[in-house]
Amino acid sequence: MGTAAAFRSDTTAQDRGEVQVWALPAPTAASPTTLDLSALDERERQRMDAFVRDSDRVLYGFAHAALRTILSALTGETPAALRFARAACPCCDEPHGRPVLTSARLEFSLSHSRDLVLIGVAPTPIGVDTEPVPKPGTAELLAKALHPAEREEVETALPEHRSAVFARLWVRKEAYLKGLGTGFGRDLAADDVRGAVAGWQLTDLSAGPGQAAAVAVNSPAPCEIRVHRDLPMK
Question: Which of 84, 98, 112, 133 has its CB 3.0 to 4.6 Å from that of 167, i.e. a possible disulfide?
């Protein structure tokens, strides 16, 4: 299991080949984002406007504007000029795999929950995930879908620790599946993500109380994960 090191908030050209993660506090409806949302494309605006709750709309807008801000700093393109597509799905070869940039060979992944926005960028496929620690009943129910060894780890944990044990495994699993580009099209029981997975580095990230987070990088050799707590400086 890798470790994540805190890093400066600015991004330089030399960082482009490194694995980087931005862990950003999620805004709320009471304290909305100050990011410029005008860079969002029409599809993103439509998805944002479709949310019923103000908090979901604010979170979506912030997460996608932050993604564009980060990728702009790394590619030199303006946030509004960035264009996205989908890679082929490894399960069926249809175009609904990992999201990709059309103009740069740079891989990225985005995840957000009620308290945290997580964005990962790397020169190779990457997946990130963050989730709140679920209630014990939910954790025990969902654990039944995991790999047998993972399920055993949840079931044998002390009752007061089971939700946190499950949450750690779940975000590692989802980050890995995002990196593969399969999402839940791949059987949740197919891979044991408690430790290393062949060809992939899975790293737990510090996410604060009641939250779990992880990053998966397609790298056979150990790589440093640089964690930023602020957006790149202009």
Answer: 133
